[in-house]
Amino acid sequence: MLRRRRGPLLLAAAAAAAAAAVAAALPSGESRGAAPSVLHAVARSSRAVYTIGFVVVDYKYSLRGLAHGSADYRDKLSEVHLRSAKKILKLCEANRGFYVKAGQFVSSIRQVPKEYSSTLSCLQDQATPCNFQDIKIVIEQKLGKDLHSIMQSCGYRQVHRGRLNNNQEVAVKVQYPGLERRMKIDIMTMSFLSKSLSWIFPDYRFEKLLTEFERTMSMELDFIQEAKNSERTASCFRKNNVVKVPCVFWELTSKEVLTMEFCSGYKVDNLNSLRKADISPTKVAKALIELFGEMIFVHGFVHGDPHPGNILVSPQGQGKFSLVLLDHGIYKELDQKFRLDYCQLWKALILLDSQKILELGEHFGVGKYAKYFPVIFTGRTIESKSILGTQMSIEEKTRLKQDLNSLGMDDISSFMESLPPDFLTILRTDGLLRSILGNLGAPRHVRLLTYAKCALYGLEEQPKSQSELAGFLMQINDLRHKIMSRFRRILQNTS
After folding, report:
1. CATH code assigned to 129-175+222-262
2. Around 484, how many Cα atoms within 13 Å sit in the side-chain half-sphere?
3. For 489, which of 3, 29, 207, 460 is 20 to 30 Å away at the CA?
């Protein structure tokens, strides 16, 4: 009986310790003056520690006595992954706020166990409502103006729809009161849990993912920076008639309030609405992947949160459309060397140059794990010589399965830890895009061909001398010919 009680008692003690740490982290004067907020933070942190504690116990006891890598071990591990993912989903839904954001972040990374990514994917479109009177106070305080002096109306949504006195429709994004303080507390709790998990399970290392998550959340809290990101993206695509970025109203924008042009449209993967508007989902998919291919390979300035709610399709009549890109809070400016190396990686992936892939793996710092780049990005093995864009053979699938089964969690953690921060952004963005493309029913070769084309554009830097320029252009033309020959074969085999 004592043994049965020990687990819950230890978990309760851990929760109490975390709660005490949260309370201690708040300034004493603030704690006394904001008791409800402190109690709310304590409850959220206690719930998180309690949930993760049960997850730890489940892994420890469910896998005990099973031979690592055996069929029984893999089956049981999948069961525990699924149970744990469901517990964490309930935690995110209960705590909301940054826990939902953390769940969204994890679900968009294809390299986490599929039980987690699929279970947590339902969080992508969740948002936390807030009392409109609180929002009104923030708008008036931060802009220094009475709300009714600048707007005729304002809705009650997550991002508020309003109309200025000149009848211009706008979308007003407001930072909830106390959000920054709540983020600090939540990140502190997550850091405590991450370090505890790394101590209990040395093969599981999450610090780098947490650091990247904290960076992205800090960016989302600065609406001035979001407005600048928006205008920079609009400038990058000013000659693209398909891409639309809402204009910013700077006189009605501050660090906590962002006022933009209101743009209407359908969620990018809303097939019913697209078909009713006589818009081809395949054309939408092609335009979308061209947009992000150019972002990644050419501009090196990447929107870090392209889930369906942040990309709208606005009908323009006769089957034409524009893509409206929203929510510019999370961006990553790629290091120039990384961008060029990533272009070279895709060139090597398309040309099946395994030696170059392994060489670039050293540049990226992943060493022996570079052999998995083709699997991650193109769905093929590094030894494969079959036509790119086609399915792996049965023999290739068998060899790959055996290879992956030999990997432990320490290998996955080592791979994720070794990746440069720019690569984590790429993986997350590419994972979200591939999900949208799948929903739109786009053929696999659409993404591969577009990325190959954009990678070539990204490599087209002007050499200094005329002889270098001539040689470079010859290489590019030769490479284009090889790539187009490969993709003609793909299209012949898929038609």
Report:
1. 3.30.200
2. 7
3. 460
